[in-house]
Amino acid sequence: MDRLSLYFTAPRQISVRQEALPSPGRGQALVRTLLSAISPGTELLIYRGEFPPELPLDENIPALAGGFAYPIKYGYAAVGEVIGLGADLDSTWLGKQVFAFQPHASHFMAPVEELLLLPEGLAVEEAVFLPNMETALNFVLDGQPLIGEKVVVFGQGIVGLLTTTLLAQFPLADLITLDRYPLRRQASLDLGAQASLDSSDPQELKLGRARLGGSFSGADLVYELSGNPVALDQAIDYCGFNGRVVIGSWYGSKRASLDLGARFHRSRMRLISSQVSSLAPELSGRWGKARRFQVAWDMLQKVKPSRFITHRFPITQAEKAYQLIDQDPSQTIQLVLEY
After folding, report:
1. What is the tens place of the pLDDT at every residue in 159-210?
2. Minimal CA–CA distance to 77: which of 53, 51, 43?
3. What average pLDDT score do residues 281-309 get?
4. How do 174-179 and 195-198 pair as beta strands?
C-alpha cells in the first residue's frame, strides 16, 4: 500500500510524496487519515525556515523524533479510522475513529497505545482540535485566573480563541483580547470577550491600557499568544503590579526586544513560560496528561470549535494552504487537510 505524505523541503516549499507503506507490525495499527489540522503557529515557522536548528522537533511525540532539518515531515493533529492491525491485536480496533499526534499523511502506522479513541458522538471536525484545546487548557492552568481579575489575551488565532472561550467561563472583572484581524476579533467577541481591540492600531492600544486603569491599574493576568515578539513588550506594558504574563507563543529563531527598564523593574510582575509538553510541577500531584485530555475532550464537546474551520484543502493542494496562511492570514482561522 502507498500513502501520500507532506514534506517541508525548504523555506516556503512544500512537497507531497507517494511512499510505500509496510504492513503493521506487532502492537501497531494502520490508520487511514480523515482530517488533519495545520498549526498556523509552529508550522508557519517551519514553512518560513524560522525554526532553531539545534532544537529537537518534539521530544514528547514519538512520530516527531529528530531535529529541524529539511526535508521535514511535521504535523500533530490527525484524526482517522483504523483499517489494519498487527497480528497480535484485538480486531475490535478495526473501524474505530482515533486521534493521533502524527504528521500530515493519508495513512500512518502507530502503536495502539499512542492512539486516542474519539469520545462517542464527537465529530472528526471537533476532534482534530484536541491539541489546540489541550494547549489552551494548559495556559489557563498555568495562568490561574481568579474571580474578579482583569485578564488580557494578545493573539486570537485558534489557540488564542480557545483560551478566550475557557477564560470567559470564569467570573472575571474584564476580559480583553487583541488581534490585528477583524475576523478573529469578531470571533473573540462571540466567544465572550468583553472587548476585542486592534493590536496594530496605537490608538486602540491606548484605549485598552486606559480601560485597565482605575484603583487597580493594569491587568492581573496577561497572555501573549500572538507569535509576534513585539506583542510581548505590549503584554508587559498592560500588566499591573505583581501581575502575571503567560508566554504561550513560540517565536522560533525570532528575537524579542523588551523594554525592562521602565515599569517592569518595580512592578514585581512574573513572566511565565507555558508549553503543553509538560504540566506545572505544582499541579502534577493531581493532574496528569490523562486528566488534561479528558477535560480537553469535554471542552471540545461543549465549545464545538469546528465553526472556526475557515478553509479545507485536499492534501494534494497543501502548498496552497500554507501560502494562504503565510500571505493572507486575515482570511483564516483554522485550515484543515482532507484525504
Report:
1. 999 999 999 999 999 999 999 999 999 999 999 999 999 999 999 999 999 9
2. 43
3. 95
4. parallel
The residue type of 33 is T
| Average model confidence (pLDDT) across the chain | 92
Q: How many CB atoms lie within 10 A of CB 216?
A: 15
Rounded to whole angstroms, what are the CA distances from 201 to 153, 180, 198, 327?
A: 16, 8, 6, 20
Centroid of chain to Cα 17? 26
* Predicted confidence band of residue 32 (pLDDT cuts 50, 70, 90): very high
Q: Which three cell numbers stand for residue 199?
A: 493590536
Task: Pull the grid cell for residue 22.
Answer: 509496510
| Residue 58 reports pLDDT greater than 70 | no
Q: Which three cell numbers stand for residue 2?
A: 502507498
Q: Read off the pTM.
A: 0.92
Query: How many CA atoms does the CB half-sphere of 71 hold within 13 Å?
Result: 12
Cell of 132: 489546540
Burial class for 149, CB neighbours closer than 10 Å (0-12, 13-18, 19+): buried
CA–CA distances in Å: residue 89 to residues 24, 28, 120: 10, 8, 22
Per-residue pLDDT at 253: 67
